[in-house]
Amino acid sequence: MSESARVPGIAGRDDATERSDRGDTERSERDRTERSEQDGTERSERWVMHLDMDAFFASVEQLTRPTLRGRPVLVGGIGGRGVVAGASYAARAYGASSAMPMHQARRLVGASAVVLPPRGAVYRVVSERIFALVRETVGVIEMLSFDEAFAEPEVLVGCTAAQAHAFADDIRRRIRDEVGLAASVGFGSGKQIAKIASGMAKPDGVMVISPSRELAFLHALPVRKLWGIGPVSGDRLSRLGIDTIGDLAALSEVEVASVLGSTIGPALHRLAQGIDDRPVTERAAAKQISAESTFAADIVSMAGLRPAIDRSAADAHRRLVADGRGARTVVLKLKRADMSVLTRSFTLPAATSDLDSLTAVARRLALDPESIGPIRLVGVGYSGLSDTEQYALFDDVAAPAGQVPGMSTRTTESAPGADGIENSDGGDGIEDGGGTGAGGGAANAAPRNEWATGNDVTHRDHGHGWVQGAGHGVVTVRFETRTTGPGPARTFAADDPDLRRADPIDSLDWSSG
User: Fold this and answer.
1) pTM
2) Which of 105, 188, 417, 420 has the fewest C-beta atoms lying within 10 Å of its C-beta?
3) Sign of CA dihedral 169, 175, 180, 185
């Protein structure tokens, strides 16, 4: 008999009765929680917001070049090693995606694909305008890249899920009305949930995850959805049968450390358990962007080293483009089997974000493993970062070593255990006359017959436009900006004196409203 049954006044209440009462209470609590979730009345002392612009690079191209709206647009490198930096939703419908090799994306989309080089200066100006609007409402913003940021609105402390949803809708409406672009927003009690929610809200939506739903929501997701789980660690977990975030959360700390390491394992384990108290703080601009990989088997030949360099260069380049900057200095890091590190760097005469140029420099820095010893880690870094991005300046980058004018080289070697990529920034970038910089002097461009698809141009009679195609002594230009609607196309002689390079930022035409 239970203790309560022996207490005068409630004799006869046995364990089964108590369990039944507790069950009724729990069901009642669940019912109240479900009702609060459905009507948005559940409150939270902390709402973290993640705002992510939808298909940002391609959407900015469509905003400033109205003819492209609704079409499959691919933004990225056009050369042989080109990678997709951004794809419109029309292109994604064919299977194209960011980080995909451009040649593969073009095959998927077919002849209807519109391929354009990135215009980092334009993306930066649009980004600044968007997040200036957001900052008016939320105060502190933690920028992750051009097109996404965290915030923790003070006005939402203790508010309901419905109020958080309305807050997100208001911000999205302002961005659409004042900039002309769509954004998706996620809300949760921490950064992890908010970021996942915004991704699931795409395109052009809002998802608010109430505190009582967070664990069920999180634990049902694939483990690769967890921020910090990349392809390599994801494959390792999958081989061990750890497929969901819930599977990872159920492991012991010892098991997590053995699988993911003692450095990042505990942090990822906490996130998997829904523990995320990381603050939202302003971030300083990165001085260097890099990517590196450690290999299970040492690299012992140039045939193995070159593709490893290409992969690291492309990975770092994706971050460079997402940050909207170009780089002057390319750094190659090689860690040998004895754990010693060899670092080599080239400083270019001006900043670039062209993947082929940067990769060619990284390849030129390579040293033969047969001469220096087996290599276990390869890293490529970019420094000397600048908002000015310059394209097609370095046609001679792939020339034999020692024959590239204007480049300076540094080589350093460190003992085992010294591990950093050295920053050998050679100074400020040089403004490009090619019109990819932000403001000033764009009309003094490279020779007028060197037109390329995507160039911003201006004509004395027709105004601002962009190059749709060029060759055989002629150039076709579409004259339009953000404010004009779809514009007419005109064909000119490539050396027409009235056709000149233009500042890409003029395509925004903010002064016209």
Assistant:
1) 0.71
2) 417
3) negative
